[in-house]
Specification:
Elements: H1 10-21, H2 38-53, H3 65-70, H4 105-118, H5 123-150, H6 165-176, H7 182-186, H8 191-209, H9 222-238, H10 244-257, H11 262-270, H12 286-308, H13 328-347, H14 372-391, H15 395-409, H16 435-452, H17 456-480, H18 484-492, H19 499-511, H20 515-528, H21 533-545, H22 549-562, H23 567-579, H24 583-596, H25 601-613, H26 617-630, H27 635-647, H28 651-664, H29 669-681, H30 685-698, H31 703-716, H32 719-732, H33 739-757
Helix pairs in contact: 2-5, 2-6, 2-17, 5-6, 5-8, 6-16, 8-9, 8-10, 9-12, 10-12, 10-15, 13-14, 14-15, 15-16, 16-17, 18-19, 19-20, 20-21, 21-22, 21-23, 22-23, 23-24, 24-25, 25-26, 25-27, 26-27, 27-28, 27-29, 28-29, 29-30, 30-31, 31-32, 32-33
Length: 758
């Protein structure tokens, strides 16, 4: 590096600098690849990364998007912004026992901004931001790879030189088009990984700027070192992996800035050599910078720990079965097998799945399992790379391999189960950052092959073919992420043993009204995982609706036996028992559900229905009132209160409740209809008519609305209008109870009037 000199000497100094930079081996020298100016390289990378995922822009909210976005109250304007800093990614309080402790307030803030600008839950805006973020990250990768592959060199004017323009472009393209990134880009929840990666890279580039006016490493900018710590903290507030950039900055500093020989340093450390300064530990301010990075990282982790609370996240065995194994051997073997699967997804991203849990990957329980070969292959490759990274005489090779392994392994550590249990087996989203290391190693391997190959163009064509295949795979996988049906069905061939895949296919079919097909998939989910209580609950619900009450009760009873605090299953069991006219058991089930979920408006609603069937009117009204207190927009509870009060002759109270309900839910036509009936009986015909007409405007095909309006006109004496609405009602529903009789009475009355008039 060259310090600032007099301007007149600048051209000579830059020439000298270029000569010095060429002293190191140039990776670009031996590869047959296109050489583009830096700005054109970035444009190409941006366009290709956009091309890969553009078809996901109009996709739906799928899979985890429902919980993280649609059902997340933190996105709504009425939730104070301050709550984001005390809630997890899913909108639950961090202090709650059910919280996953995923603390990502900045990601949730971007979702909230999306929601506010779109004026609601419209997925296009969310998807577009994800695609743009991936394009920006891919463009930044050009600069990052130019440093990691070519080294960090500046001119005397502080301009960073790209000493590996060809290889950095290739590596950035490999990153931009990697199919394993589809989950992060096409799945809106992947925003966390994208934002984390963005600030992760900005932290790294900021750290590199600390040495812009550096002379032989003795001078550096403390400001940029601290800025990189702050950017690392921002990355962590987007997703937990972000904190690992501080460790990678330290590794980069030691290897690139201080040119530390790791093996030599370890040997001197073992010999307790007093001349550790010669190994590069103390010179050039390395120790001071690492102290800043470590202090910053420790402070960030402490603050996060204080906010998050001391309790670990609560996961179940189905989320990560290996972590619940009693044997240390079984845990270790399976963790390593999971690592090999992640490595395979980077090497051959063909079999991709939205979820790898619940039996998708059966546990390895003995060394006779053939899958042990995958572990052996992984460690054979890793040990080989580590040996080369430590022992090679080529310092350039040592540096690139160590950086490649560092970027591959260090960002993956939070997902490795080594420090704490994670809530998944394999997750494609967590290898978004580690893929940087893969791209470094792949590109370096390509340069080594090119150096040996006689026909370099054939090798270049092969790499181009890999890029094209990956582009097509990204486009195909993006289209599968556009809807839940396509996404869930795509997983059936990849993970046929995954109970959650069958459950989600069944749920999607049930939501579309195809109950017969849904039953088949729910049964398969329960067969694959006999303790899958959510599949039992949903299957029990469908059987209940089909009046197959005996089997529904058996399934729901088994679900609450397996998971005694499963409130939804207790409520559904109560509904089935109510249908079987076992009222005492039903009441007990409802109260058990409420005990496990205190704020459960739907359960209070169903409890009110039970009390109404038993003519316990006061209890029914109290239950429905509780439902509306917990959920003011609970239309069914409001309606039942109005109808019960109406039927028992409490018209004044029914009217008051109806008006209260319409103030809270002004556009609910069923409430308009119920209140109109009450007003009609109270002889407030004009107001009743207005509400009936408003309800009919909102729902013109409801036969009962026309029929009851006809009754109102009949009472009021507007016989022609009564006749008109009786006829509309009978046209919509010829079997409407009472309407035909009322219509015949009206016709006879009209005939009598005509005779009198005649």
């Amino acid at each position: 590096q060259i310090c600032n000199q007099h301007n007149a000497e600048a051209p000579k100094l830059e020439q000298a600098f270029h000569r010095m930079a060429q002293a190191e081996p140039n990776l670009d020298h031996d590869i047959s690849w296109v050489l583009l100016p830096s700005h054109w390289a970035k444009i190409v990378v941006a366009l290709i990364s956009f091309l890969c995922f553009a078809n996901s822009y109009d996709g739906d909210f799928v899979f985890d998007d429902s919980e993280a976005i649609i059902n997340n109250k933190d996105l709504r304007a009425e939730t104070p912004l301050g709550d984001l800093w005390h809630h997890d990614f899913w909108g639950s309080k961090l202090s709650s026992n059910t919280s996953h402790k995923s603390y990502r307030p900045l990601t949730v803030l971007t979702f909230r901004i999306n929601y506010l600008f779109a004026g609601g839950f419209y997925p296009v805006g969310f998807h577009v931001i994800n695609i743009i973020l991936h394009c920006i990250i891919s463009v930044l990768m050009v600069d990052v790879f130019s440093i990691l592959l070519g080294g960090l060199q500046f001119t005397n004017k502080g301009r960073r030189l790209n000493l590996a323009p060809k290889t950095s472009l290739l590596a950035a393209l490999l990153f931009a088009v990697h199919p394993v990134h589809t989950e992060c880009v096409a799945g809106i929840v992947g925003r966390a990984d994208l934002l984390c990666a963005l600030f992760f890279l900005l932290s790294f580039l900021g750290y590199c700027k600390a040495f812009r006016e550096n002379k032989e490493g003795h001078h550096f900018s403390v400001f940029w070192v601290l800025a990189s710590v702050v950017l690392g903290a921002v990355a962590m507030l987007c997703k937990e992996q972000g904190i690992t950039i501080l460790g990678l900055n330290a590794v980069f500093d030691a290897l690139v800035i201080n040119k530390l020989n790791v093996l030599e340093f370890i040997q001197k450390l073992i010999r307790k050599d007093k001349l550790l300064e010669n190994a590069g530990l103390l010179r050039k301010g390395l120790l001071f910078r690492i102290t800043l990075l470590m202090s910053g990282g420790a402070s960030i982790l402490y603050i996060r720990w204080r906010i998050m609370g001391t309790g670990p996240p609560a996961f179940t065995e189905v989320d990560n079965p290996a972590s619940f194994a009693d044997s240390l051997f079984v845990r270790a073997i399976n963790y390593n097998y999971y690592y090999s699967l992640n490595a395979w997804l980077l090497l051959c991203p063909w079999w991709l799945c939205f979820d790898w849990s619940m039996g998708c990957i059966p546990l390895i329980k003995s060394v006779s399992d053939w899958r042990i070969i995958a572990l052996a292959a992984l460690w054979f490759c890793l040990i080989g790379l580590i040996c080369q990274a430590l022992c090679s005489e080529d310092s350039h090779k040592r540096r690139i391999l160590t950086l490649g392994l560092g970027f591959l392994i260090i960002p993956f550590l939070p997902a490795s189960n080594l420090f704490f249990r994670v809530g998944f087996v394999v997750a494609e989203r967590v290898i978004y950052l580690p893929s940087i290391g893969y791209c470094i190693l792949f590109t370096y391997g390509f340069t080594l092959l090119s150096k040996q190959a006689k026909k370099k163009k054939i090798l270049a064509v092969a790499v181009l073919g890999i890029l094209l295949i990956n582009v097509m795979r990204c486009a195909l996988r993006s289209s599968q992420w556009r809807s839940e049906e396509q996404l869930f069905r795509s997983a059936l061939s990849v993970c046929p043993l995954n109970a959650k895949v069958h459950y989600n296919v069944g749920k999607n079919l049930a939501d579309k009204g195809n109950q017969s097909a849904a039953i088949k998939y729910y049964r398969e989910a329960v067969r694959l995982n006999p303790k899958y209580v959510h599949a039992m609950n949903n299957l029990g619900n469908i059987l209940k609706e089909r009046n197959e009450l005996q089997e529904a009760e058996e399934l729901l009873s088994l679900a609450v036996q397996i998971q005694p605090d499963f409130a939804a299953a207790w409520m559904n069991l109560g509904i089935v028992q109510n249908s079987l006219r076992r009222f005492e058991e039903a009441e007990q089930s409802y109260w058990t559900a409420i005990k496990h979920r205190r704020k459960y408006p739907d359960c209070y609603y169903n409890l009110g229905r039970l009390y109404a069937d038993l003519n316990r009117h006061i209890d029914a009204l109290n239950a429905w009132r509780n439902a509306t207190v917990l959920k003011p927009e609970h239309s069914l509870a409001w309606n039942n209160m109005i109808i019960l009060l109406d039927n028992t002759g409490n018209l004044a109270q029914a009217e008051a409740v109806g008006r209260e309900a319409l103030e809270l839910i002004p556009n609910d036509h069923s409430l308009m209809f119920s209140l109109a009936n009450v007003l009609g009986k109270s002889q407030k015909y004009k107001e009743s008519e207005a509400l009936f007409l408003k309800a009919i405007k909102a729902n013109p095909n409801a036969a009962s609305y026309h029929g009851n309006l006809a009754v109102l006109y009949h009472r009021w004496g507007n016989l022609d209008l009564a006749k008109k609405h009786y006829e509309v009602s009978l046209k919509l529903d010829p079997m409407a109870p009472g309407t035909k009789e009322n219509y015949n009475l009206l016709r006879r009355k009209l005939e009598q009037l005509q005779k009198k008039g005649g």
